[in-house]
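User: Hi! Is it possible to get a structure for several chains at once, not just one? Here's what I have:
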Amino acid sequence: MEKKISIIIPVYNEASNIQPMLDALERFVPVNYRVELIYVDDGSTDNTLEMVRHIFFRNQQVHYISFSRNFGHQNALKAGMDKATGDCVITLDGDLQHPPELIPVMLSKWEEGYDVVYTRRREDKRLPFSKRYTSKRFYGIMQYMSGLNIEPGIADYRLIDRQVVDILVQFREPDPFLRGIIKWMGFKQYAIDYNAHERLSGVTKYSTKKMLKFALQGITSFSVRPLYLSIILGSISTILSLIYIPYVIWHACMGYAVPGWASTIITIMFFGGLQMLLLGIIGIYIGKIFIQTKRRPEYIIRTTNMEK
Ligand code: UDP
Ligand code: MG
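Assistant: Yes, the chains can be modeled jointly so their relative placement is included. Here is the combined structure:
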């Protein structure tokens, strides 16, 4: 019996990339598997859904799931996995930045017995130094804060075995951070390195704001370590003020009093800022509890041609 693979492609305003992506898949997906191709339209405002509705993969209509609005990349991947029926699931971006030529390699590693085959993008030497530096720092902080070894360049281009998918779909977290969750789950994992292509057409859907939000989500959904930051910073400021207070008293005793307005203001501003920062961190966690207690669905489907 031929094995079946599910390929999940989240698309958000990618109309011009649908056909090229399909051609690439026709070329690189091995023919000795049954293939279930699932496009997840994440509330596109262009004609992405129309395009998806009318394409065929190896003479079969492709599957689609269309959201009622934009729910984000991670939720789109989750929706695809919820519906997938293959013996393994492969997720990749719809802009050809995840080279489909790796699919046969991933499949052979899976056949060897690995449960998760993930990919790591090699450092792009064409990017400016500042960009590469900040990206490295980001992963460093991320690793420390989340306590997980999330390697630089790791992306949502991976193969997951059915056994792992079955567990994953039971996770119900708003804004799942799949990179972290899958790493956290363990199993036998294998990494493949690749060089990134330029996006085929269109623009990136990840603005700096979205990236920052993603980073914060990633960190705060994985650990409470940032909360310890308040204890550390709080202790430092207490010690500093303990040193400062005797100085102030001495200052007053010597009759130098009135000047000192500046230092007062500086202290108020500094600690005011610190408190805001820490309240912000605590606020994010409380926000998460709030969202989670409502138990809303992670996404809403408007139309689909899939059952289950
Ligand atoms: N995407 C999505 N929903 C979003 C943002 C992006 O489904 O809200 C899709 C997008 O169509 C693409 C993939 O996720 O297939 C990765 O997005 P993008 O290429 O914009 O990110 P980048 O490669 O720049 O990190
Ligand atoms: Mg991209």
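The radius of gyration is 25 Å. Residues 93, 95, 97, 199, 204 surround magnesium ion (ligand 2) (CB under 6 Å).

User: Great, thank you!
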